[in-house]
Amino acid sequence: MDFEISELNRKIGEDSLFIQDLRREMSKVVVGQEELIEALLTGIIGNGHVLLEGLPGLAKTLTIKTLSQVLDSSFQRIQFTPDLLPADIVGTLIYNPKESTFSVRKGPIFANIILADEINRAPAKVQSALLEAMQERQVTIAENTYRLPELFMVMATQNPIEQEGTYPLPEAQVDRFMLKVNVTYPTKSEELRVLEIMARQEHPQVKTIISADKILRARMTADKIYVDDKIKNYVLDLVIATREPERNGLKKLKDYIRCGASPRATIFMIQAAKAYAFINGRGYVTPEDIKSVGFNVMRHRILLTYEAEAENVTSEDILRNIFEAVEVP
User: 18-218: what CATH class?
Assistant: First the structure.
């Protein structure tokens, strides 16, 4: 086993070299936001979708667009609006009057990286069309089903403060995102750097340095990362604690939790932890990896009661208590 992990560490060291180049290239445009960049990398290596929530102007869209420019892959940005239709995303049949036939026009969903900008501004039908494609990795147009690209990732953004003219994502649909990242304000020094870079007519340009095939190979390598049974049980204990907090001496939390994390949280936690270990050049998952990805994996999977909202208890508070209470292997 030691030999296998040692060999895997060597292979991961080789296959993850591009991570440093990618970070360096993105830093030409994106200042700070290390957690955001790390989450996007975790999502793309772990083969999961990412939901970003934050106030306007915090570089959510810029970061995703910059990542797509660094990757040699197709990119589509979809600006969600109330008048958007499902066909605008997945595609539709077009009638040719000359030949009296219908032909398929594929929508923007058939790209490697999709930026769903302000996803909560589109009605339920549009959100469902996108989220079904995310889950099934395929699209049905008329009677035919079309597979989406093997490298396919949705990065969605939403604004937490504006409620007028928005359609909040249902909890069951939010659950399909591997990670939900809360994007925060930069520090003073970071904002000064943003000012120096962006308050000019000419903005820095990034180079394309990573191919889609290299990302797919990285995923295959990351999938082989060793996860000990103790780590698996630790993940299960964390997830089950969101459903039955009293088993970990957190009886008070039971009044705040309406629904705990779904089994998807267990699966995504391991996938994200493997990707995180890969990004950090390791062939095995540690409890610290679980802690690093845990909040992003579970914060959108805990539904709060009215009592929690009345007492200003957030999912972050609940997760903090759970991570402190559950024994670390």
Answer: alpha beta
Mean predicted lDDT score pLDDT of the chain: 84
Nearest to 325 by CA among 237, 194, 227, 263: 237
Q: In this structure, what DSSP letter does residue 152 have? A: -
What pTM, to 2 d.p., does this model score?
A: 0.87
| 18 in Cβ contact with 214 (< 8 Å) | yes
State the DSSP string of 89-132: HHEEEEEETTTTEEEEEE-TTSSSEEEEETGGGS-HHHHHHHHH
Best CA proximity match to 214, nearest among 49, 36, 21: 21
Distances (CA, A) of 121 to 63, 107, 158: 20, 19, 8
Phi, psi (deg, nearest 5) at residue 96: -105, 105
Of the options 1.10.8.80, 3.40.50.1820, 3.40.640.10, 3.40.50.360, the CATH number for the domain spanning 225-325: 1.10.8.80
Q: How many Å separate Cα 276 from the centre of its chain?
A: 13
Specify the pLDDT at position 231: 94
- Model confidence at 161, in pLDDT bands (50, 70, 90)? low
Look up residue 200 and give its DSSP letter: S
Alpha carbon distance 241, 261 (integer Å): 9
SS3 of residue 323 by DSSP = helix
Per-residue confidence (pLDDT) for residue 27, from 0 to 100: 82
CA distances from 23 to 88, 252, 300 (A): 33, 42, 27
Write down the domain spans for the chain.
18-218, 225-325
Token pair in block for residue 27: 């830093």
Quickly list DSSP for 26-79. HTTT--S-HHHHHHHHHHHHHT--EEEE--TTSSHHHHHHHHHHHEES-EEEEE
**Angle made by CA atoms 38, 34, 160, in degrees to the nearest 5:** 90
Residue 27 burial by CB count (10 A; 0-12/13-18/19+): exposed, middle or buried?
middle
Pairing of strands 138-141, 144-147: antiparallel
